[in-house]
Amino acid sequence: YQDPCESEDRYDKALKVRYTVLQSNDARYGDLKMLVSSRKRREREQMLVLEGRRLILDGCAAGLRLEAVVASDVKLLGELGLKSNPKDCPFFLVNRQTMMEWSSLTTSPGLIGVFAAPQNLAEVIARNGTAGSKRLPVTVVCDNIREPNNLGSVIRSCAAVSAQEVILLKGCAHPWDLKCLRGGAGSHFRIPIHGPVELYQLPELTRAGSIFVIADNKRPGDDGQAGGFRWEQYDRIDYGSADHVVLFIGGETYGVSEDVRGFVNQLTKTSEEGIGRERKFVAHIPLANGVESLNTASALSVLLYEIRKCLQPLMEET
Which residues are in the tRNA/rRNA methyltransferase SpoU type domain (predicted)? Predict the structure, then answer.
């Protein structure tokens, strides 16, 4: 089925917005539909799709180039406060049903922005970091966090404490998944995100001399060791004993994998007995009332704010 009428260009004098009422028999309709619905298509064409007024404005503020805007109501285009340019950034109007079909969210905000993705988005975000805000010397490494909403919340927590960066290992949800973006609530544009990357690439992204902390509530053996790591309550670790902290957080089902633990052991091997162990910790968060674990984002937030409490006085001194 194709709509009998053609797409039509219009101008709203009250809102001062020029837009096109897009019909399904227009080639641009099919292109936009494929771009919104297919992540592979977006990656191939190096595009980002953001839903909602806040995310679109955050993308513009980060310096990304806006290619097109799709709305289900012309008033939403006016509220966006951006000038339309039919050649470089056309505005399109579709009906509400089409918007609901295109949206990845249960309740569509009625606005979709299509952006050109820069070659290295992490560098763009680092360069556009908030003026006067010093980054906390913490790298958060995510392992097998497969639920997009959870990963979005993790990125949000990292941005809230102004961590240095987030690294996603292969197996995590894609950071630019539309649900992950929604869970991040705009935080994706406030902290550099690398990945997903392979485990062997990790040394290139972490700093020499860091201490390594794994978030895990599994109890160790009688010797207080957990596979070569010192098992400590999260608020008893000396996070300021090194220039940088690398914090590993895993998915809620399996936690941080044995492959990652083994890799960190290899990374911290030293000829001086005992020194390597002093750089590797398993952080335990004590729980009560029969609760076995916190969800990923909650546990990470507890750890990050404890680390910030320890490191902030040292950062102020330097």
Answer: 138-305
